[in-house]
Amino acid sequence: MAPTSVQRPRSADPRGQYRVGIIGGGQLARMMHQAAISLGVDVRLLADAPDESAAQVMGDVQIGSHLDHDAVLAFGRDCDVVTFDHEHVPTDFLREMEAEGIAVRPGAEALVHAQDKAVMRARAAADGQPCPAWEICGGPEKLVAFGNRHGWPVIAKTSRGGYDGKGVWKVNGPDEVAEPFDAMGGLADGDQPIQILAEEFVDFTRELSAIVVRSPSGQAVAYPVSETIQRDGICVETTTPAPGMSDERQCEIQQMALDIAGRLGVVGVMAVELMERADGSVVINELAMRPHNTGHWTIHGSRTSQFANHIRAVLDLPLGDPSLTAPVVVMDNVLGGSVQDLTGALQHCFARDRSLHVELYGKQVRPGRKVGHVTCLGSDVADVQRRARDAAGYLMGRDNA
Ligand SMILES: Nc1ncnc2c1ncn2[C@@H]1O[C@H](COP(=O)(O)OP(=O)(O)O)[C@@H](O)[C@H]1O
Ligand SMILES: [Mg+2]
Which of 25, 135, 269, 369 has the most other CB atoms within 10 Å of its CB? Predict the structure, then answer.
């Protein structure tokens, strides 16, 4: 796909500054904003509510829903470039913005592969990328037939609208096939049709993440591949580079991710979630086209963070160096636990580990909710993981810290 042309500021700002619009007010927008401040870029936010993570800290906030056609279009018209905190803006709205000449980055044709897992699977298969066996199932009987053909358990997913494991089911046998179809209605994604995608259950030994960033003019960079741990569908830890992976294998996986980004014409950050089997082979799990939880380590562990490179990419500025700042980087998510006063709890964490890095998202603590993350750097995997787990555990109220 041809790269979109470089866009100059359209906004009437007398300082001639770019205005980047971010749709979605979560922590990713908050951290993109932080990166944009250093570049002198104005950021405008479309958020659901003023108390959302990014809306709390940004000066230019429009309150409105990403599912409200008129609100999204009006927001886009006021920005030089529009980008995203999540992938749930209806694809039709994005196409309409593009038809009006608004720079949407990533563009609708690329982003749909992160919005719709069925579209992604079809494209990856056509491009010869490694995928588990998969099939769109029009009803429970099709899911039974898929399981009987490929073996139980199977994974069932909603094609759209899922996140953090919501919309993914491990189906152990024919008597469990109804649940995904029953739950589908609760995951409406605007007016977009949702389908059930069946996937072969991949008995992976670990999950990996390959993060790349691509600009409209086609420049791209790849971060070192991370090992990721997901628990109940939520990322809890990343270790970078993935322990035990050879440099050659690192390069092959980075190359695969760069190839996907180039073929799809991605602009900005793209994360390729992968599952690695015991023989070292990998299959693609899903794509995300925005800064990703598995890339939070880059804020302190890379010379240029995923957030800084995302902002550079959407403005078509040359991308920054993605290389590591330490031999081992571990990020642990802080999920809501028994500690309400997270900032107060830093007293202990910082006293214990003076090289600890912490990002807190300003979100009210609720059980299991992503409220922050910690990053530790070092040279010994076990030691760095222990430090990160201790700090995150303390902030979650675990007494093993
Ligand atoms: N085909 C599969 N086989 C085994 N486990 C899977 C499969 N697909 C997904 N999973 C597990 O479910 C998690 C969530 O699935 P994913 O499609 O990434 O959903 P989400 O959009 O919620 O992140 C994955 O990180 C992985 O642990
Ligand atoms: Mg996922």
Answer: 269
Residues 314, 229 within the same domain: yes
Q: Look-up: residue for tokens 């390069």?
A: 251
Which atom number of ligand 1 is nearest to the Cα of residue 201? 3
Please identify which residue in the block is written with the tokens 């089997």. Answer: 277
Domain that holds residue 192: 133-200
**pLDDT tens digits for range 202-235:** 999 999 999 999 999 999 999 999 999 999 999 9
pTM (predicted TM-score)? 0.94
Residue-level pLDDT at 123:
98
190: domain CATH number? 3.30.1490.20
Atom 11, ligand 1: residue with shortest CA distance: 233
Rounded distance from Cα 113 to ligand 2 centre (Å): 13
Other CB atoms within a 10 A radius of the CB of residue 129 amount to: 18
**Could you tell me the pLDDT band of residue 159, with boundaries at 50, 70 and 90?**
very high
In testing the pocket of ligand 1, which one of 275, 276, 281, 287 has its CB within 8 Å of the most ligand atoms?
A: 275
Q: What is the mean pLDDT of the chain?
A: 94
Q: Tokens standing for 215?
A: 């600009």
Give the DSSP H/E element, type plus range, for residue 38. Answer: helix 27-38
Residue type (1 letter), 161? G
